[in-house]
Design a protein that fits this description.
The complex is a heterodimer of chains A (110) and B (214).
Chain A lengths: L8 H13 L5 H12 L5 H14 L2 E9 L5 E8 L1 H18 L4 H4 L2
Antiparallel strand pairs in A: 1-2
Chain B lengths: L11 H10 L5 H18 L1 H26 L1 H18 L2 H12 L1 H6 L1 H30 L4 H27 L2 H32 L7
Helix pairs in contact in B: 1-3, 2-3, 4-7, 4-8, 5-7, 7-8, 7-9, 8-9
């Protein structure tokens, strides 16, 4: 197993957002889900830059929806997590849990 | 049936800027921005939605610029180096052309000194701008799909060199009005390079229209 098998922080957040949104995951919903849950403003450019990277690694797959008028006639790009992506998120999650095990993070930083 | 004309349109310049950095394959980025703009406009008002759209546009462009450069760093660098060498060669041509014309028609210029002064000052400025724009077009043409990344990178390299030259030599040895004029000339050249890139990018985008449902 190489270091590349772990997800970066923002990659991790995006994959989790796609998993939460299931078949409704596209740029707008992913961005809004992250903003709602992390209270952190993210740009659509940052979301797509990370999604493209995840797709090139084979962690997510995308397909186009139909164009709609409220989008100026442009189509949506829907994303779903692949089996490889799900394995990577599990591995990253386990690594983080293992690293934080036994640490009282709230108390030690208060 | 609802059409795109029924929705409030986001700032055109911001949309144009995003489209300069996205290919037709990345139309979903512009679509996502427009969809969220429509949602925000209904929820929080037009002024808020416009501010949000501009903020997102600038951040998105920064990410697209970085992403496009990282995707092809060597070919972009090669294009920028080629553009830099071309600019070094081509920027001397207007001065050489003026020298040749001056030498050949010396008697004419002696009788029309004001015309000579026009060509030697304003004419040279215009010629330098045309040359810079031409170089921007060539660089953008060579960097297919990354037109703006290549021209802006060339621009950043030239601006860095300009800054070093200005503070290292021009500001110390030239009178302030001449130094500022030199700076203005260099900045307008840089602007012309990016404009050349934008022209080629817009032409390519127009040649391959984005699909529309209206």
């Amino acid at each position: 197993m190489s270091g590349r098998d772990f997800l970066g922080e923002f990659e991790h957040i995006i994959v989790l957002a796609i998993l939460r949104l299931e078949d409704r995951a596209y740029g707008v919903t992913v961005r809004q889900e992250i903003e709602f849950r992390t209270k952190r403003e993210v740009s659509i450019g940052a979301v797509y830059a990370t999604l493209d990277r995840l797709e090139s690694k084979g962690y997510v797959k995308s397909h186009r929806g139909d164009p709609t008028p409220e989008r100026g006639g442009r189509s949506k790009r829907f994303f779903r997590v692949t089996a490889k992506g799900a394995a990577a998120v599990n591995r990253t999650q386990r690594a983080l849990q293992s690293m934080t095990e036994g640490l009282d993070l709230i108390q030690s930083h208060s | 049936m609802t059409s795109a004309a029924d929705f409030v349109q986001p700032p055109r310049i911001a949309t144009w800027l995003v489209n300069l950095f996205t290919s037709s394959d990345e139309e979903s980025i512009s679509g996502d921005l427009q969809e969220e703009f429509s949602q925000l406009e209904k929820k929080s008002g037009l002024a808020f939605a416009r501010r949000w759209y501009w903020r997102q546009t600038l951040k998105t462009i920064a990410h697209l610029f970085g992403g496009a450069f990282r995707a092809a760093p060597w070919s972009t660098t090669a294009t920028v180096v080629g553009g830099f060498l071309l600019l070094q060669f081509a920027s001397r041509l207007p001065d050489k052309a003026l020298s040749v014309v001056t030498d050949r028609y010396l008697a004419y210029w002696s009788n029309h000194f004001s015309a000579y002064m026009f060509w030697a000052t304003d004419g040279m400025l215009i010629a330098h701008l045309i040359v810079s724009m031409f170089v921007g077009c060539v660089v953008a043409f060579a960097a297919k799909g990354r037109e703006m990344v290549a021209t802006i990178t060339l621009d950043l390299v030239l601006s860095a060199m300009m800054g070093v030259t200005y503070f290292g030599w021009v500001a110390e040895h030239w009178p302030i009005h001449m130094a500022l004029l030199w700076m203005l000339l260099q900045c307008s050249g840089s602007f012309a390079i990016v404009l050349g890139g934008a022209i080629v990018r817009t032409r390519r985008a127009t040649a391959k229209p984005r699909p529309s449902c209206v």
